[in-house]
Amino acid sequence: MAVPVSPGFAAPTSVKERIFILDSLRGFAILGILLINVNGFALGAWDPTIYNETGLDYLTYYLVQLIPHGAQRGLFSLLFGAGIILFMQNLEAKLDSTKPADYFFRRQLWLIAFSTFDVYILLWDGDILLDYAIMGMLMFAFRNLPPKKLLIGAAVCMCMMLARGNLNLYHDKQIIAKGEYAASLDTSVTKLTGKQSDNLLKMQEFRADTRPEKKKERAEKWREKMRSNYWEVRDARTGYYVDTLTRYVYLEAWDILCMMFLGMALFRSGVLLGHSSMKTYVLMFIIGTSLGLLLSYLRIEQMEKYHFDDFELAKHKLFDFYELTRVLRTIGFVGLLLMLHKSGLFSWLFRLLQPVGQMAFTNYLMQSLIMGLIFNGYGLALFGKLPRHETYLVVGGVWLFQIIYSNIWLRYYRFGPFEWLWRSLTYWKVQPFLK
Asked: How far is CA 148 from CA 81, 89, 153, 259, 269, in A?
């Protein structure tokens, strides 16, 4: 129940106002996201042929691709969407006029600043904070919609995700088809036109760029950069981030919008708060997981069939359904967690992870710091040196540290250090820190 607050007073969500299950779900999400991000921190490539992975390493790759890949980021985005409504509800209950919106947009703008810190100081080129800051401001306009309309928004964004992925596939197919047609012409009889020559060149460049030796060459160059000093790592990671920023934020962010819509809908309907029946969560788990894993399995089998060759995949793949399997597995994962929560059998686990989720922002940035010190050249320089399965031992170590650290920290402090800073900047007032 909310703590009574005098009208006109704005303050962060108090301990009594916090929603236990949301914090716990954030705990699962922030630890789960490292299952995926460790690839960028430690290896730099998902393609198992680059490192000639077999045995336990390939099994690790397979299981991560099959189950959590994409779904953990989906859960993270879903909870951020729910957090937008929660943030605004708390302020709108306390303040009149446009002040809640002022605080919200200030909060999002500071998130952009923290994203810059994560990319340019902590050197994580897989940072997601800028995307959440921008997309969160867009989602502000939809915060008061009823669950059904929010679900429609999620469905529209999912269709856009699928359309975008398959337009990219169609574009690649066109490059191959036009290039192969030009290659089939007998140039001793028919001279290629300028357009046909261009088509042939594009196909040849596409083919050369996807050859195993070329991919291994790029991976080796990246390893050398990652094992260099801080400034060379900084140039490489920030350069990669900037090169991909515009394309991702403006063309490939439908997945974030889809999950934010879904998170808002599940929050407004009470599903995300554990208010629905056990049957609802069981159905979410069974349907989402079974269909999601089936599609994920078919996707990996197709990649294996063509030996992870992007050229051959583009040529023979009929439909790109990666985004659909992400959404389904995310729904299944949410259903599983809420099913476990509602059963009461795993209360201890949710209590253990609640502080981790309450400090999700600090823990996210801390992962960038810790993993950078372990794998980049200014630290232990282990980038590319550990086999894939051993990188997950590092993940387990970071999980253990963050669980212990978060539980101890919140015994004495109201917020995590970065949560406290973010709130102080949002409200233009130093927030109380000690309990």
From this structure: 15, 19, 9, 15, 9
